[in-house]
Design brief:
Length: 126
C-alpha cells in the first residue's frame, strides 16, 4: 500500500442511508431502531481490539484468512476510520459534494438542510 485515500481525504461519508421524507414521518420508530443498531456497531468497533473485531466479522468473510482480516481492521483503526457517532456533519456533506462535483457526477449542489436529517443519529448517540 502506497497511501491511504481515506486518511488523506478527510472524513468522507462512504455509507449513508436514504429514505423518503414520507417514510421517515410515518416510521420514526423503525428508523430510530435501525439507527440505534448501527450506533451499537460503531460503539463495538470503537471499544474492541482489531483482533476482536476481526474474529466477530470473520464469518462474513469465510474465504479470507483471519490474519488478513485483522490486518485490514487494524489499518482502519489506525486511520481513525470509525467515527464515535453516525451524525452526518455538514463539512462531510460538503466534502462529498466536492468529490462528486470534481468527478463530473454531480450537476448541481443540494443544501445540507434540504437533504440531511441528523435527529435519529443524535438520538442514537445519547
Amino acid at each position: 500500500m502506497i497511501a491511504s485515500l481515506g486518511k488523506d481525504s478527510g472524513y468522507v461519508p462512504y455509507t449513508a442511508f436514504c429514505a423518503k421524507k414520507s417514510f421517515l414521518e410515518a416510521n420514526p420508530d423503525k428508523i430510530q431502531s435501525f439507527t440505534n443498531a448501527l450506533q451499537r456497531g460503531m460503539d463495538y468497533v470503537n471499544s474492541h481490539t482489531p483482533e476482536e473485531i476481526a474474529k466477530a466479522i470473520q464469518p462474513q468473510f469465510k474465504e479470507t484468512d483471519l490474519d488478513v482480516i485483522t490486518t485490514i481492521v487494524t489499518r482502519y483503526a489506525e486511520q481513525d476510520t470509525w467515527k464515535e457517532n453516525l451524525v452526518f456533519e455538514e463539512d462531510s456533506f460538503t466534502l462529498l459534494q466536492d468529490i462528486l462535483e470534481e468527478s463530473g457526477e454531480l450537476s448541481s449542489r443540494v443544501p445540507y438542510g434540504d437533504l440531511v436529517t441528523t435527529t435519529f443519529a443524535e438520538n442514537a448517540a445519547k
